[in-house]
Amino acid sequence: MMLIALLFVSVGVADIARERFRKPAGPLVGAAAGAIAAVLVALGLGIPLAWSLAVIGVMLAWVASTALPSSGQSSYLKLAILGAATVAAWAFPVVQADHKGAIAAWYRNLPYEVAGEIGFETFVLAAASVLLLLETSNIIVRLILAAVPRATSTSPLPAPPTRRSWFSRSQPAVSPAPTAELPLKGGRILGPFERVFLFALILAGQFTALAALVAAKGIIRFPEISKDTAHGAKAEYFLVGSFASWGVVLAVAVLLQLT
Q: What is the pTM of this model?
């Protein structure tokens, strides 16, 4: 369990750090932050540093591969890096914290009853999962969307409208230049919020509230989807992205339950 937590912390911190910087510095900063986080958390949990080196290797492979453009099969290969590493970490349950590190001592001294009800390893894995659900899950969703084949339209483009002129027969109508709008990238913010809320509701067993949250998202986006005329592309994009995001939350919750 602790090896999975160490992997999630390293990858999660690396992705959060690199998204704060533009290329080409972003991946380098992210890799450095992920490596530092892996070493510090390993020391705080009492895990041998040899395991942190293995986790750093996986993190570097993830950051390097996802920094490149993704499409088709390459997206699945990048997802396989993180998936295979998670399964391998789950297969080595012998890696445990010695409960003598600084993080374990801090958790034991918390003046809250929940610290006595929730095991230390469960707390560490849940906190590491939250880090993974922030920026790394955004990258996972983008990889899945990039892997979806795109349909191409073969219908001819409509001819531009014409207007009558006093001096000639007809001339193409001059349409006003489109105004440049900067769309809000709200999905990068709303996605992590949504996943963290869903994860918290699953851990609390509030499945009715979870269903209400999922239904509310569909209701809010319904007017936009109902106006979709491009062969349902927008609706498919919304559904694929939503189910991919929910699938990550479900996978993390099941992993926490199994471990």
A: 0.78
